[in-house]
Amino acid sequence: MPQKVRVPLRVIVGSYSDAAVSVYVKIAALERRTTGCEAGVAYLSGLLGLARSTVERALTQLMRPDPSDDIVELTSQRRTLPGGDGETAVRRIRATNWLVEHGGWVPTRASESLSPRQLRCYAALSYATATGVHITLAELARVLHHRSGQKAGQPLDPRSVRRILRELERLGWISVDRRAGYRGRHLYTVHDEPMQAALTADSGEGSAADLGEGSLQEEHHQTDSPDDQPPTAVLDIRRRRVQVVARGPVENPPLPAEFKVPAESLNAEPKVQLGLKAYSGPQLSLAPRIWRVLEPVKSLLPGLPPYVVRALAREIGRQLDEGQEPQRLRRRLEFRFATTDTIRDPGRWLLGAAVVRRGCGDTACESGRIWHTGRECGACAGTRAATAALRRLERELDERERQLGIRTPYRLPASRGRLEDSPGRNR
């Protein structure tokens, strides 16, 4: 059985370059190891047959927030040995809930044997065939649109798409039943491995109604995933231009004035009292996705030192990249801000109590309950039951020692783990 990875639909049809799709597939396959993807740029370049600069640009695209929804598909963590020598960064793809997000299955071998544009076409066909969509050349052209030059952002010519499909058929990755589908459209079958395919003559006419007259069907059939059944949804393939967003060390793109913290509002009084120079640098700007989370506590931000705001932005960005939803973090801050009577140190409260996720090691656990379902977390319930049993055992042991007249000089108390939020407590 060939190894396959599932590529999100937003990566297939979005503004990412064709090379970014190939890099995503290969990293998703290598990331299945417990240590994550430790392959360097040179190794990825050799596997995919791409230039190192192309792989580096693709990695940069995947690690930046998408301009349309601020989602980051890839995270990279640098490592340093105790002696100071650096190691290859560990890369991991975004944790995806496939019950609510669509995607297409792509064999990892295809990323090495197909060109980036052919791989993107294959991924689009994989999703379309799995959902029962009779896709046309015009719709494929909107997925494989021009990436550079004067026609950047425009759909490919149907003749160019036909040549890509013909090459995929010749290589044995797809099979084409001409004019066997809906209203005389071609039917495509994708293969997990290259099949022994013979060269076929193309009449040059293509599929019927493929020049903008047809559209993708709205029903969403069961995909070829062995373990999930996505809900009904509409396959929306649209053209988007690439918008390069500069990103600093902390989610720091150029933003309008409403997303900026004025320099004069930063806390400079303690530095003045100590005889130090007050902060006079540029305005601190944060990504829109960070501001959406911080909106319930925006009244606490003026007066905070810049490094505190940056540390808070880093922590929120880390949790968002981990897979937690922005609405979840927003509700957490809103609840804890409303149930806290007195906040003596806003920076310490925001970093040490407000933004911290409470619960077990499961990312979906929020204060002892699963965020998506609202049900009690089994791991947290087991921990509470074990702690309660330990306390009962200690009370029984104390009672027995008291009856026998035995005095224990010292015993470690049972850990009192706290999972739920309690109102009125300042942290």
Q: Count of helical segments?
A: 14
Q: What structural class do the secondary elements suggest?
A: alpha+beta
Strand content: 5-15%
**H/E element sequence:** EHHHHEEEHHHHEEEHEHHHHEEH
Large-scale geometry? elongated
Placed side by side, the strands forming the largest sheet appear as: 1-4
Number of strands: 10
Radius of gyration: 27 Å
Question: Whole-number average pLDDT?
Answer: 76
Assign a percent range to the helix content: 25-40%
Measured between the Cα atoms of the first and last residue, the distance is 53 Å
- Please describe the biggest sheet, giving its number of strands, its sense, and whether it closes into a barrel: 2 strands, antiparallel
The low-pLDDT segments are 197-259, 263-274, 414-427
Short description:
This protein is of the alpha+beta class and 427 residues long. Helices cover 37% and strands 10% of the residues. A two-stranded antiparallel sheet has the order 1-4. Strands 2-3 form a two-stranded antiparallel ribbon.
Comma- or semicolon-separated keywords:
two-stranded antiparallel ribbon, 427 residues, elongated, alpha+beta
